[in-house]
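Help needed: design a sequence for this.
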């Protein structure tokens, strides 16, 4: 059966590149019914089969849509029919301009994702494919003429551009920095073209945050607009996000990976101690003047979740850290006082990690109090005192 296709408009409407990707994916896997299997690209035959299948579905839906409209005055198929017409128009555009789409990146007889990216990038806007992109100067045999701006770091460019354009929207707490949690949310809400790039930014956050400013307070946990601007410039110059992050670290003198990780960790811990001090009353849910492990974990999961990674480290080593400043007595055996946190912040500012502080305090208190040197015996002793000393 020959199925009439939708007539193409004189001016092809500008559509989001994601719409073309959706059609390519459906045609590649045969729309669930046609084709031999997905390989990331579609031939003319596969596209023709897909268009024919959509045409048949269109006739079926139109029949029931008209019947419902005639007898009931409404149809539950209207939205489904509109979506099908949209996909059919996109697929027909790809079919009628197969040479232009196939030449988006190379001429291999198939339209792939790289072809769509290449076609979209001809006018510098990778998010949309316009009439100008499709019907502009057609590529001749061999290399594209004129060449489209195809870059190996295209996904990185799109991701960084997306972050730059939507920075305020992604900055949920409005502190001027994008932390890992906010970047994860951005990745989930962004279009398919930007997701990988945003993920790469999140994975390299620690290095990128040194791109434009000296890190301080929340800058240790996230990226500022200046950091993103700096990163975009490097990516526009041809670097991948990984390469840009590595170059930023090198320029800042952070060539030793272990030393770099320790510096970032201790500064984040320093900020976390400050936040625990500033929010002590809120974190101290039972009001006994100390922060126990449960209260610390709760804070790291709720209102201080931005500093959760550091707070979890503190909570895990709370048994030893409570010896940081005072001779423990009564409630001091049950958690960290303000004085403890102040002393611990001072150690972090001097470059001492939580684990190093924990080890130093265990050795110090065992020498001063004559407690057993054994790690296990030491903590059994503390836990025994806790059991004998009820909370006040």
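Sure. Designed sequence:
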């Amino acid at each position: 059966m020959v199925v009439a296709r939708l007539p193409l408009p004189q001016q092809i409407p500008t559509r989001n590149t994601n719409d073309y990707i959706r059609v390519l994916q459906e045609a590649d896997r045969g729309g669930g019914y046609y084709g031999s299997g997905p390989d990331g690209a579609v031939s003319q035959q596969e596209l023709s089969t897909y268009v024919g299948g959509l045409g048949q579905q269109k006739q079926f839906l139109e029949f029931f849509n008209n019947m419902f409209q005639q007898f009931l005055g409404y149809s539950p198929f209207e939205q489904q029919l509109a979506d099908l017409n949209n996909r059919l128009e996109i697929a027909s555009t790809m079919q009628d301009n197969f040479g232009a789409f196939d030449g988006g990146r190379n001429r291999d007889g198939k339209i792939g994702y790289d072809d769509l990216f290449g076609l979209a990038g001809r006018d510098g806007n990778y998010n949309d494919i316009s009439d100008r992109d499709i019907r502009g100067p057609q590529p001749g045999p061999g290399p594209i003429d004129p060449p489209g701006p195809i870059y190996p770091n295209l996904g990185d460019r799109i991701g960084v551009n997306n972050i730059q354009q939507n920075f305020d929207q992604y900055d949920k707490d409005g502190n001027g920095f994008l932390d890992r949690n906010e970047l994860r949310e951005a990745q989930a809400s962004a279009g398919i073209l930007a997701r990988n790039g945003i993920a790469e930014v999140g994975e390299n956050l620690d290095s990128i945050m040194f791109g434009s400013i000296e890190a301080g307070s929340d800058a240790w946990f996230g990226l500022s607009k200046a950091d993103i601007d700096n990163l975009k410039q490097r990516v526009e110059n041809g670097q991948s996000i990984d390469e840009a992050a590595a170059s930023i670290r090198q320029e800042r003198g952070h060539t030793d990976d272990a030393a770099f990780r320790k510096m970032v960790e201790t500064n984040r811990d320093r900020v976390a101690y400050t936040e625990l001090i500033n929010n002590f009353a809120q974190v101290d849910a039972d009001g006994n003047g100390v922060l126990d492990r449960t209260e610390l974990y709760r804070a790291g999961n709720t209102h201080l979740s931005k500093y959760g990674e550091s707070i979890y480290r503190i909570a895990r080593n709370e048994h030893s850290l409570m010896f940081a400043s005072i001779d423990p007595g009564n409630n001091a055996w049950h958690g960290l006082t303000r004085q403890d946190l102040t002393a611990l912040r001072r150690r972090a500012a001097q470059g001492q990690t939580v684990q190093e502080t924990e080890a130093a305090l265990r050795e110090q208190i065992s020498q001063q109090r004559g407690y057993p040197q054994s790690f296990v015996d030491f903590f059994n002793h503390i836990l025994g005192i806790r059991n004998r000393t009820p909370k006040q």
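Residues 44-72 form the longest helix (29 residues).
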